[in-house]
Amino acid sequence: MIEPLLLTTVRICTFDGDRLLTGASGFFFARDERLFLVTSRHVVIDTPSGHEPSRVEIEFHTDLQNLAASSVLSIPLYQDGTAVWRQGADAGGDIDVAVIELDRSALPPTVPLCCFTPQHLQSSLNEVEVGTSVLVVGFPLGFHDTLHHLPVVRQAVIASSFGMRFQGQGYFLTDARTHRGLSGAPVVMRTTPNDTDLPWTLLGVHSARLDIGNRDQDMDETLGLNCAWYADILLTLTAGD
Q1: Predicted confidence pLDDT, tens digits, the chain (241 residues)
Q2: I want to staple 95 with a disulfide (CB 3.0 to 4.6 A). Which of 69, 88, 101, 214 is the partner?
Q3: Residues forming beta bridges with residue 225, ordered by sequence position
Q4: How far is 206 from 227, CA to CA, in rounded Å?
């Protein structure tokens, strides 16, 4: 049997009409009977860079017994000129997380959905120590098992005080080797929650690598640090209308 963690995450491709723009990562989050696709907000819009896709595509499995079988769902990002995604903000500013509600009826009934839920969120922030080992699950540079349509994982550790908003922003730091294409990937910690079928705690949503402006490009290596937005924002973004 395939590990359920690998079924939570999907590859996202962004398009302007039929023109392919970028690749990213995303994951499923279920709340009650509602199903959401979670990714980074800058995947669906990034005005400073001129990235304004009109739709995204996700690839998903259609048969758990045959992981080579897959299908693609195209998701418009606008309806009647209005964005379909939800994004959040707090006292520190905009949060780089977006959710799109999915119509379950648009997915074949045989889709082996594996979703994070509110019970997978970390309830007490002071229980996660700096240096804790975590995984980032996604599609770095689009790389993945193309036969079985599965993501890969990168090892990481918590690199800042978890629960203390780094520089007043709603994210914490991880120390990991990451690449483009991982934006929107879940950052998870192995635990034994109530859901024994998916024994992982969802800590954050990977956003981007961090660097410093005064780094000597010839003398200094990149920091190797990344920001991950606290996953509890999902409780706000997936609340009922």
Answers
A1: 789 999 999 999 999 999 999 999 999 999 998 999 999 999 999 999 999 999 999 998 888 888 898 899 999 999 999 999 999 888 778 899 999 999 988 888 888 889 999 999 998 878 899 999 999 999 999 999 989 999 999 999 999 999 888 888 899 999 998 888 999 999 999 986 566 789 999 999 999 876 565 555 555 556 779 999 999 999 999 997 6
A2: 88
A3: 175, 210
A4: 6
Cα–Cα distance measured from residue 30 to residue 37, given in angstroms and rounded to the nearest whole number = 9
Beta bridge partners of 57: 13, 74
* Helix/strand/coil for 29: strand
Structural contact between residues 13 and 20, judged by C-beta atoms closer than 8 angstroms: yes
Q: What is the pTM of this model?
A: 0.92
CB–CB of 174/208 below 8 Å? no
Backbone conformation region of residue 121, classed left if phi is above 0, alpha if psi is from -120 to 50, else beta = beta
